[in-house]
Amino acid sequence: MMRSIKLATFALALALLAAAPAHADFGFKDVQLAFEGPGGSPLTQAGAHPEAMTVSLEFNRTNDPIRGEIPEQALRDLVAELPPGLVGDPRAVPSCPEFEFNITLLGGYSRCPDESTIGSIDLVLAPGEVEHFPVFNLRPTVGSAAQIGFLGLSVPVPLRAGLKEAPPFNLISTQLSAPQLAPLYSAKLTLWGHPADPAHDPERGGCLDLGFGFPPPHEDCSVDLPERPFLTLPRSCTGPLTSLFSARSWEEPSRWVERSAQTPGMQGCEALGLDASIDSRPTSTQAAANTGLDFDLDVVDPGLTDPAKHAGSDIKAAQVTLPAGMEINPAQAEGLEVCTPAQFGQEKSSSTFGAGCPVGSKIGSVEAETPLLEGEVLRGSVFVAAPHDNPFGSLLALYMTIKSRQLGVNVGLAGKVEPIESGPEAGRIRTSFENLPQLPVSHFRFHFRGGPRSPLSTPDRCGTYTTEAVLTPWANPDKPVTATSGFEVTSGPGGGPCPGSLLPFAPGFDGGTLDNHAGSYSPFVMRISRGDGEAPITRLDAVLPQGVTGKLAGVAQCPDAALGAAAARSGRDEISAPSCPASSKIGSVLAGAGVGPELTYVPGTVYLAGPYRGAPLSIAVVTPAVAGPFDLGTVVIREGLDLDPGTAEVRVSGAGGGIPRFLEGIPLQLRDLRVRIDRDRFTLNATGCDRRTLAATVFGAAPISLAAPYRASGCSALGFKPKLSLRLKGSTTRNGHPALHSVLTPRPGDANIARAVVTLPRSQQIDNAHINNPCTRVQFNADQCPPASVLGVARAYTPLLDQPLEGPVYFRSNGGERELPDIVAQLKGQFEIVLVGFIDSKRSRLRTTFAQVPDAPVSKFELSLFGGKRGLLVNNRNLCEGKIRTKLALTGQNGLRHLTTPLLKAGCKGKGAGKRRGNGR
Questions:
Q1: How many C-beta atoms lie closer than 10 Å to residue 164's C-beta?
Q2: Are residues 700 and 730 in the same domain?
Q3: Single pTM value for the model
Q4: What average pLDDT does range 109-125 have in this prediction?
């Protein structure tokens, strides 16, 4: 009878409420959350297990002329966000299946077993009327980690519980679509901290008198449960704890109202410890190998499930530093994608893989276990965050998600990755995760993938290496805990023997022109490579084969200012708008970096530039260091460009510069360098087909000299017929000192000159009285020859240069190697070429032999010797008494010889000049 009266009263109140107009002031009149210790006293000990937790909600009311004080509106949805660090253990008591919970027994009792009772709830549904119902631990539905519920007036009311899917990842409880049984004035939920305590038997399940006139179905509700706490207080002592309650009504479902509750902050954190250990090991134990990484973190906390103990601290921050030598592997960049903040925000507990962060950005996986969910393993993924577009604005960062669709859990964390940029520990990797959720974790496993493009590389030597983790507790942030783990590198690269104290260095080398047809233009290529575990390449010097030259005429030079600007730019900016003018481009490079069988290749551009470190010109290699999603800026490497003065061999030297080892702390791990000089009609082949050499000095652990064979082809098809004209100017009489002017003109397309022998007629001799102090070799090398040693001037025109090379002709001593001093032409311009002629006498005729002429194209060569008082040559007869001829013996680089007797013209005038023949031959 009493239950019928109450139900009738509720029905009448519901009807009156439905007839009442909606009011705009729906909301909370008061909210409270409290933790109780023994005897009901407030409990503030961090990590303690309270006797009970109570949540009290009172809703705004209004005065109705007929019904008196009534709630403003009917509650529809309620969301409670509990303080961070507060956790519950749904395994502390058995759970009640949903089908049992939904069956109502006579008197409004539930069929849930008494063992599943975890508290009670008081509802005020009419003024002065408090209804008391048991609260059960329910089997959670898909999408929730836990669920509790009660039968209110025989209607099942479930409350879902889980983690908020955003920091601080605190517990959140949700009641959706609350039944409109009667006006709800207030509610008080009490959850027991120790459900197994016999003191709760009178209120447990079927023993609680609901007050509806029906006796409880059970007389004895004692249970045989392990003494396991259901609730654990936060393990941090920072300020008061805040809970947030949000609600909306059936009448105004679009309007949410909020109210917070403050609970005193925790105390006694100094008593909480952190017992943690780590295990860190690469997936490969070989030196200098591509590798993944397994990192395990274990936390032992018996106090979490022992009612007689306090729980230990959670981890607030973790900083893990890998050992020196274990570095980022550039090979991972090829094909790698990244995850943006917006994409990371789309990672939800219910989202499918790839719906948030791209599949191609995943580089690892994670697993987490907690004592509160025994037997459950939460799994997730590790993604590469977008460079500089991440919470840290850093080049390197990680996103980590731990999720479960079944439990409705999604914990997303961002970690900063900081490679050490310089010093003896350059390249060492430090990863930090800050403000971790206040959730107990017993085991955490982090796995970086292995494979050809694994993200890490092992140290390059055998030995024991130590990973260090600095763990900051929530309870005592100023007392971090350090844990270490060692691993062994047991073999050399590929499983071979361990390397010694000095790394091996045996780089591969090859190069040459793609089309080696003599005298033709062809792209030039060169390649240097090294194996895993070898010393890094730090510098490269090269000497091109003699006769392989470049046509600099018409090629612009990239200004120093442009190169400086390029070095200061991002790689992507340099790609979109190159700093150097296109007219200075002469080729390209392709650099392969990484450890393991797969490399990441980065292209660059080769430009001609101006003087550099004493060289008249330079080659500038501008490489935008953009590898996959990473932009490490623009690398500018300059190499001096010069010619050997005697052979005209092209010399490229990186003295004073070199290849960087690290960029922003990331090792380059340069393994394959390919150079291609392919400007149209730039690189010219030699015209000699003898065996020659492309030489290089590669610097690593120590300089090593390498060589690649070069041999032009088709030299015999080249012609060879230079033309020489000689003229004497000035006195033609005996004892006169005429000036000599000679012009040598090779034919275009012929083989270049290799050797020249000029034999003057007997009419010309050296005047020993005019031999002043010859220039010594020391003076010549110091560019300090005395003026009296200058015999004349020379000028060489070549299609390879915009301007001719020209300079003085010296009489230079040869240290007694020959009877007479040498005649030396020092030609200067963009480069310096020195031609040395050996002077001797053959059959009383003065002979000059240029034994080594560079294999380089010359369109015209002029040699002028002074006459008069400075003249070296003297007439021993009257030059106008007949024609005078010289002997010219030229040898081409292709071996062909050209012998002529060109006329030595003199300044004779008058009708009888030159009529007599043969006298001067």
A1: 17
A2: no
A3: 0.87
A4: 94
Q: Are residues 252 and 187 in the same domain?
A: yes
Instruction: For residue 915, tell me if it sits in a domain.
Output: no
For the record, the structure tokens of 410 come out as 């999604």
CA torsion angle 340 346 347 349 (round to 10): 170
Say yes or no to pLDDT of 6 above 70. Answer: no
Q: Which of 715, 740, 768 is the last residue of a domain?
A: 715
| Share in percent of the chain as helix, strand, coil (round to 5) | 10, 45, 45
Q: Number of structural domains, the chain?
A: 4
784 found inside a domain: yes
We report the CATH number of the domain holding residue 740 as 2.60.40
User: β-strands 315-321, 429-433: how paired?
Assistant: antiparallel
| pLDDT of the residue at 680 | 97
Interatomic CA distance for residues 465 and 496, integer angstroms: 19
pLDDT digits (tens, 9 = 90+) for 20-47: 444 448 999 999 999 999 989 999 999 9
Q: How far apart are CA 415 and CA 319, in angstroms?
A: 9
- Based on the domain organization, do 91 and 197 belong to the same domain? yes
Is residue 247 helix, strand or coil?
Answer: strand
Residue 875's closest CA among 726, 758, 737? Answer: 737
Which DSSP string corresponds to 232-244? E--S---S-EEEE
| Residue written as token pair 């700093």 | 579
- Same domain for 613 and 547: yes
Say whether 842 sits in a helix, a strand or coil: strand
Record the tokens describing residue 643, joined without a space: 């010619």
Q: Show the tokens assigned to 548.
A: 């392989």
Average pLDDT over residues 859-869: 95
| Separation between Cα atoms, residue 462 and residue 370, nearest integer Å | 37
Residue range of the domain that includes 774: 719-905
* Residue 751 · residue 721 · CB < 8 Å: no
21: left (phi over 0), alpha (psi -120 to 50) or beta: beta
Number of alpha carbons in the 13 Å side-chain half-sphere of residue 364: 24
- In the chain the first and final C-alpha atoms are separated, in Å, by 154
Q: Are 587 and 699 found together in one domain?
A: yes
Decide: residue 240, CB within 10 A, 0-12 exposed, 13-18 middle, 19+ buried: exposed
Cα pseudo-dihedral 511, 515, 517, 519, rounded to 10? -80
